[in-house]
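Write out the bound-state structure for adenosine-5'-diphosphate.
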Amino acid sequence: ALSTHVNEQNKRRRQVLNEFLDLKGNIRVFCRVKPLGKDEKVRPPVSSDTSNVIIKLTETNRKAYSFDRVFEPDSSQDDVYIEIEPVIKSVIYGYNACIFAYGQTGTGKTFTMEGLPGSLGIVPRAIQGLFKQVEESNHKFRITFSMLEIYMGNLRDLLIKSQATKLKDPIPPSLSINTNEKGEINIDHLVNTEVSDFDEVFKLYKLGCRNRATASTNSNSVSSRSHCMIRVSITCLGASERRRETNKIWLVDLGGSERVLKTRATGRRFDEGKAINLSLSALGDVINSLQHKNVHIPYRNSKLTQVLKDSLGQDSKTLMLVHISPKEDDLCETICSLNFATRAKNIHLGQDESKE
Ligand code: ADP
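---
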């Protein structure tokens, strides 16, 4: 049974890569439904198959949302990685890429991106995958790693060793974002460390996580207060035929999308939530403008979209992984997330194809 499973996985891997190489649009939207907890036995109002999420609004009224791929509650980390692997490979083929985890706090964004020991998520698998690709390639590559967060509209470098600032302290001077003559985005003074194997990356990643957590007054809520962004840059040494010398992939665990007015948060927590909501809607606007091929893309409306300007749109590969809870209590937030995801989806692909 195990060998059949491995064969099936390999078959799916090849299929996904072929689909990816044929892909017309550059933005794909996947949805992952969190499994119910052991004590949550009631029939949830959310059901799914591999490409649809169905919401039971009333006994007779159901609404279906379709996506490029839906990961059902019993899907494994393997199932997810197989589908996103081509995006990781695209960086070696000369593209910039960006993978986002979006959703309400507690729906599994960190589980998908980081994973647990023995159940690794996208970030460790992607980095292992990149090193493997580099090893197998005929070219020489230089790989660098950076990690930052966006908190209250400011960029904080997570790889500064002595970073002892608390989030409640006055905000340290924000890193500034510049565009060079080639249209590439640079973040001034951001630590960008050369890495040669997975262990080196893992140490930096742990440092970044510690810096993120120590800055928080409540580590449980750290991921709902800020966006955590990892950048892996790959420079092909001595390959002049490539379109760009350096390509990068951003792996982004977005702050919780719950609407701040509904959470009844007050004070600083309210401001944090408001900042997250604003930047998520700016991200939605940028993706939507890209899908509609608008002339003006509103990158400037948030730090998040400014940082990602050269990795979103044009010939970059973007993947949005929207996370939802199947629970009755979360239904409002689930519908909001599904609506956001639908707006981000490539709704015009059909039209574009008919024009060609
Ligand atoms: P978020 O980052 O969206 O706030 P987490 O990733 O922290 O959410 O998930 C909340 C909890 O649910 C964690 O304990 C996590 O391990 C668990 N969890 C989330 N998704 C899954 C899943 N698909 N399978 C098993 N456990 C999950």
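---
Residues 24-350 form a domain with the Kinesin fold (CATH 3.40.850.10).
The longest strand covers residues 140-151.
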